[in-house]
Amino acid sequence: MLISSDGASEWWGYKPVDKTPRSVSSCSSRESEQGRFTSPTSSSRESSMASLRSALQGLGASRRCSARPWFLTRIRANTFRAFSTNLSPPSRAFVYEQHGPPDQVLRMIDLPPVEVKENDVCVKMLAAPINPSDINTIEGVYPARPQLPAIGGREGVGEVHAVGSAVKSLSVGDRVIPSPPSFGTWQTYVVKEESVWHKVNKNVPIEYAATVTVNPLTALRMMEDFVKLNPGDAIVQNGSSSMVGQCIIQLARIQGVQSINIIRERPGSEELREKLKKLGANEVFTENQLEVKNLKSLLDNIQEPVLGFNCVGGNSASLVLKFLRQGGTMVTYGGMAKKPITVSTSSFIFKDLSLRGFWLQKWMSAEKTQDCRVMIDHLLSLVQRREIKYEMELVPFCNFDTALNKALGKLGSQPKQVLTF
After folding, report:
1. CA atoms of 58 and 23, how far apart (whole Å)
2. Which pLDDT score is estimated for 12?
3. How big is the CA angle at 27 (ends 65 and 403), to the nearest 5 degrees?
4. Total domain count for the chain?
5. Do 80 and 126 fall within a single domain?
6. Which family does it belong to (predicted)?
7. How do residues 306-352 score in pLDDT, each as one tens digit?
């Protein structure tokens, strides 16, 4: 199911940053003609200077305020140079100045134009997802954290709005994604160096281009990096309804590998089972169905899995281990249950099982930008051939609070939330 909504209205005026906390749902409906900016008065510029200095530090634009902020050197007679070749349009963004619950610490602010230097590219964002890693980063529990204050989001897709004089590989109108993922995608305009951006095919739906660099790439790497899988082999996983889980099912199907999938007992579990089977899942079990002594008796013409994937932890991870064959490997890439993994001594001694971990951020840190982009192009080609698909819900940027509540699980199980700008 793909639920589309109209994009949020554009904001073309500059508004000084208000340090008073604002609801994430507050989104101006005012619009004006492209290129026409309202200008702050002299007094408003002076009063907002201190708050802007704080808000702009570390927001991903690689610009810092000094005693005389860079943006004031470009403002004359209260007028913005709207079509200047070295200024981006003003932007609005969801930022956080301290770590904590996202629905409490995030607020929307308006940012002034940013200088587009000779090697920079200004991108108008089109779509950006809300991932669990985004939430963990805001909470302060994710290992990779930007300097505060920071703009939320790490992946997305946009259209090139302007380029610096030295930029050669990109042109205005190109569709691009940050690759590897880069902090600060929850804003209407992003200015970063040319090397950050990877051009993608415009025929790829924006929701797929916006979400390819984290979850599908994680699934692809885990399927290839730990065990050599041959046609007829089997894998087992929990968290099968997640985006990574859905991608694993389909990548396994493409390789001729069978998949055993574990889901939580929930309302609509039968409907979910059928959805996963349509993606290519061979078996789908709820955790309650697996409370039997001999799990393997439940399998019909499926080999014992050689590889397992765990993103839940606790008892669900133990179920993955029980399915594995002699010498099998379980890869952990998440811990949604926030419970430890308990492994019996016999699993190591008599079954010779291996436990591994995977974190995409660490894999990318090893100077693998080009490898990453080759895999992204491969995954997007699978999307274009309709060999990979997954559930998403498109939500206008103005309805960020609703999307965030869904991403936080406050409204029950929901598809991946993708913001549109």
Report:
1. 22
2. 29
3. 105
4. 2
5. yes
6. Belongs to the zinc-containing alcohol dehydrogenase family. Quinone oxidoreductase subfamily.
7. 999 999 999 999 999 999 999 999 999 998 888 889 888 888 998 99
